[in-house]
Amino acid sequence: MSWALPWRLARRELRGGLRGFRIFLACLALGVAAIAAVGTVRASIEAGLAREGAALLGGDAEMDFTYRFATEAEKAWMAENALAVSEVVDFRSMALVDRDGIPERALTQVKAVDGAYPLIGAALLEPEMPLREALEGRDGLPGAVMERVLIDRLGLTPGETFRLGTQDFVLMAALAREPDNASAGFGLGPRTLVATPALANAGLLSPGSLYSTKYRLDLPEGTDLEALSRAAEAQFRDAGMRWRDSRNGAPGVSRFVERMGAFLVLVGLSGLAVGGVGVSAAVRAYLAGKTNVIATLRTLGAERRVIFRTYFLQIGALSLVGIVLGLALGGMIPVLLGPLIEAELPVPSEFALYPEPLAEAAIYGLLTAFLFTLWPLARTEEVRAATLFRDALAGARLLPAPRYLAATALGLALLVGLAAWFSGTLWLTLWTGGGLAGALVVLAAAAWGIRRIAGRSARLARGRAPLRWALAAISGPREAAASVVLSLGLGLSVLAAVGQIDGNLRNAITGDLPDVAPSYFFVDIQKDQMEGFNRRLQSDLSVHRVDSAPMLRGVITQINGRPAREVGGDHWVVRGDRGVTYAGALPARTRITAGTWWGEDYNGPPQISFAAEEGAELGLKLGDEITVNILGRDITAPITSFREVDFSTAGIGFVLTMNPGALEGAPHTFISTVYADEEAEAAILRDLAGAYPNITAIRVRDAIDRVSDVLASLAAATSWGAAATLLTGFLVLIGAAAAGEGARTYEAAVLKTLGATRGRILASFALRSALLGLAAGLVALGAGIAGGWAVSIFIMETKFAVIWPSALGIIGGGVLTTLAAGLLFAWRPLGARPARVLRARE
């Protein structure tokens, strides 16, 4: 049978306009718009990063080395292939200002540059001057520029002096814009720029100090970056060189944008699922009103397939309208607000309409509309000619025919598969999909339970007429309890889970800080300084614990003779350089989980003890050989033990530990963590930094504050996504309230006829809405706490405790939201005249 007749019937139905489908269109459009907007912003940032890749990187390509400068052979290769080369040295240090004999110190990320810096772009200084002139300094002192926040923290003004290590510098200007700042990644301190020759007498770049060198290359136009990358890595990869080029000038930013965008799209899918509840309710209500039409068509000989296809085409056409509206809204709003968004972004962006995110949002919208309308449409087949003028849909069976169940399962699998493919995060997608499905099942069961409880409680509310009326209405078959609980409950569940996760993550970072985290990290301690360093701390009763270890950095280049990235993929252990240490005796508080430790007197070939959890993630086992490049030298050794390493304590933790004979001959420094009373921290820093100007102190509380700021921005972005979900739920509530307006009008007319006052009827309507909102809020709170617990325990691996202010806010929000939606559609029923309403029902 062709689709011509169903299409002709569907067109006639569509001539009736959009009455009854406004909420349908709004829910679908809002869900699609949220996903399209997130995708458009992500694509705009990625386009900006691609366009400005060379400017972000500071050159067409970059060769990065840890702990050392490039060798003559490496420099010769650069000179042969590049038009110009700029050398940058990056490290942390303490900036010191002496004010009347009282030192003030602040952590800073120092960038030492040569005369060719920057190859691309320009540094913006305040007051305006050339960077080269600023770094020359005055009065015999080298110059420096600092970020404004560091200048204010130290109370400096241009022309005053400060010290890095043992070298004095004169502050010449504030650094308003650093041309290659996006390529630097996350830093614990504000930026200071100096000239590399000025550090010759500062004592900060001694052998073993923690620093990296970056060589930016200005390449001839038309250079094949892929071929040059392969040539450089083939020649220098084993020497610990890391290559980047303008194709991905800020990989850390790109990775963050991609993953954050994928996560927000999954949050957007939650909103689309909430909208799907509204879509399903709208279709069900519309088809219930078409029972007479359907029965008439069956009387005239229309087959079941004709009925189904007619309304399938009609709903499909309206779904396309909603999706197009959502795409227009989600695509155009970021473009129109592009200048405002770009001003707030720390990276370049290029706002325009991009087909990929719009296509992704359209696919999500189509599949959601299909999944949530198929079951209501399938029930049209159950309307028979004998049921003319009866509400056949109200008594239809719960589950449709098997073929519709199979189509639903196929559509759901396709939606989850595409979401995993588009987001690139399979497990997060499965967790999100499973959580949504579980929440919908729980909420549907809760809606059924609420109706049963309300029905039983109505008999107990004698003497409280408004309450009894409200409970009786909730338990009735025509009351929209299911729509309210499903739509509002799912939106509140997402918001509750976000609140619990955010609160517990903050508690994990800050709540237990005095008990588990050190006061300071001290780095770049020379070996001959350790005796005096320990003597100062051991004599201080406020110091509870000191942990020290040799510190080197190396790149894992091979695993069992294969490239490490080929074995470990994108795992963080093989993605960059890692901290490496050595020890003879088994360190205190270290637990071996497999294998044996080499022992204090071991003097044989190199051996490796690997972090157990990270080793399991990489698929390593005892006996596997790891090649680590340290200071340009490859060290290959077998794994002879795995040990437990807890990186969550903010203490010293190394993925890779070796026996002393393998590393102690290489230039290196020591790292130390100091656990002390907070009131003693200032004196400890003053004494140690004064005695050893080359060491760098990282105050853990300050580092935690920087991380908390990042988490705050992530939580804000996620909360906005959850808020969009809640807004969709509110639209569904409005749709449910509007659909039930006729029933409430009739109810109010009967009650008025029996002598009820408007006030008591209004109180009944308000109680009905508030009780449903309270029930939805309580169920959502349970689902949100469960989701927050699962994410905190199994993904974040933190402790979990209920964040009660957020929890109570969710319950209050549920009550107020349903109350507002219910009262919005209560005034017309209250104002209707009973005689007119009752005559119309005859």
TrEMBL record:
Domain of life where this protein originates: Bacteria
Annotated localization: Cell membrane
Residue ranges crossing the lipid bilayer per the database entry: 263-287, 308-341, 361-378, 404-422, 428-450, 770-796, 802-827
Domain ABC3 transporter permease C-terminal stretches: 267-379, 724-830
Bilayer topology: Multi-pass membrane protein
Main location: membrane
Keyword terms, alphabetized: Cell membrane, Membrane, Transmembrane, Transmembrane helix
GO cellular component: plasma membrane
Listed PANTHER family: INNER MEMBRANE PROTEIN, MEMBRANE COMPONENT OF PREDICTED ABC SUPERFAMILY METABOLITE UPTAKE TRANSPORTER
Protein name, as recorded: Drug:proton antiporter
Lineage of producing organism: Bacteria, Pseudomonadati, Pseudomonadota, Alphaproteobacteria, Rhodobacterales
